[in-house]
UniProtKB/TrEMBL annotation:
<feature type="transmembrane region" description="Helical">
    <location>
        <begin position="187"/>
        <end position="207"/>
    </location>
</feature>
<feature type="transmembrane region" description="Helical">
    <location>
        <begin position="104"/>
        <end position="128"/>
    </location>
</feature>
<comment type="pathway">
    <text>Cell wall biogenesis; peptidoglycan biosynthesis.</text>
</comment>
<feature type="transmembrane region" description="Helical">
    <location>
        <begin position="343"/>
        <end position="364"/>
    </location>
</feature>
<dbReference type="GO" id="GO:0005886">
    <property type="term" value="C:plasma membrane"/>
</dbReference>
<keyword id="KW-0472">Membrane</keyword>
<keyword id="KW-0961">Cell wall biogenesis/degradation</keyword>
<dbReference type="GO" id="GO:0008955">
    <property type="term" value="F:peptidoglycan glycosyltransferase activity"/>
</dbReference>
<feature type="transmembrane region" description="Helical">
    <location>
        <begin position="149"/>
        <end position="181"/>
    </location>
</feature>
<feature type="transmembrane region" description="Helical">
    <location>
        <begin position="81"/>
        <end position="98"/>
    </location>
</feature>
<dbReference type="GO" id="GO:0008360">
    <property type="term" value="P:regulation of cell shape"/>
</dbReference>
<dbReference type="GO" id="GO:0015648">
    <property type="term" value="F:lipid-linked peptidoglycan transporter activity"/>
</dbReference>
<keyword id="KW-0133">Cell shape</keyword>
<dbReference type="InterPro" id="IPR013437">
    <property type="entry name" value="FtsW"/>
</dbReference>
<feature type="transmembrane region" description="Helical">
    <location>
        <begin position="53"/>
        <end position="74"/>
    </location>
</feature>
<feature type="transmembrane region" description="Helical">
    <location>
        <begin position="306"/>
        <end position="331"/>
    </location>
</feature>
<comment type="similarity">
    <text>Belongs to the SEDS family. FtsW subfamily.</text>
</comment>
Amino acid sequence: MAKRKRRMKSGDFVLVLITLALVIFGIIMVFSASYYTSINKSGNPYSYLVKDTIWAVLGLGAMLVTASVDYRIYGKVAKPIMIISIVLLALLFTPLGVERNYATRWLGVGGITIMPGELAKPAAIIFTSWFLSRDPKIIKSLTKGVVPLFLLCGVYAGLIVLQPNLSTAITVCIIIIGIMFAAGLNYIYLGGLIGVGALGICTLIITNPESHWMKRLTSFMDPFADPLNTGYQVVQSLLALGSGGLFGLGLGKSIQKNLYLPEPQNDFIFAIIGEELGYVGCLILIAAYIILVWRGIHIAINAADLFGTLLASGISIMIGIQVILNIAVVTSSMPPTGVTLPFVSYGGNALMIFMASVGILLNISRHTVAVE
């Protein structure tokens, strides 16, 4: 009878190559997009470039560490990780919470800030993967598998929406439900979870007619109806994409980044990419993301155990859903949200988390089961 033996591989080279290419491309585009904003804010055109490069180096270190650590260790500390992430979200509503742009999404201690909402994503991935991998049949049980994770979605969503940060709440819930689906969630339960989630979002928006969520929804329906107020950012984004045409205006030649499009190096950096590199540049970037997610799915399918499969699935879902949401917002295909473009948008917390997550994918890819 054939024997199954675990052996170590060198890791997924394509995954490493695509990740590093996206990070380097992100540094270049952050510098280009932030040039005039940086001068306006600090007088130094290189401030965002320097910060983003530092975060990229730290992210590379995090990726190397997580690529070296056996991914099964995360299962042993899944509960504490989940609890810590929830505690950090709760601390936002204490004096430690830092308010920026009418939202409290950062914890600040001694000049250092972290975003608990970003940390909640990998925490949810690790806990959900561990919870479902203990027993492959638990996902079939409504009371033992579906309801506990649905309640977890509610806890995360509730704490994140209060910041307020609806986009991150939606992302975390999609990640959890996506892992449940990968584990074999019944289609009826899946439809029910999606229905309840959609109903909750609609109720939240409708019952708060004066909230910024309602304003974003109405501006999405017709951004040109109020181009100087609620629809301003989306209108400037569409102008940037339209100006880029097929091949773009050329790297560094964006017009909208000249203090027209607010914070162009952040959530709307895809608009600057479209303006400077054109439709072709956008297609190449999207193709890179597709390859990255495909490698993640490939790793999930070939993982040595169920925990590795679900962990790799969750990371792939996290990257894929953020790419879809970000591009959808920039192209006015959905209401504006605060979702960053993975590896490309400026933001230290998000960049480090994405690179560390890729490191976990690499470690999973190094473990396989050989048949002799």
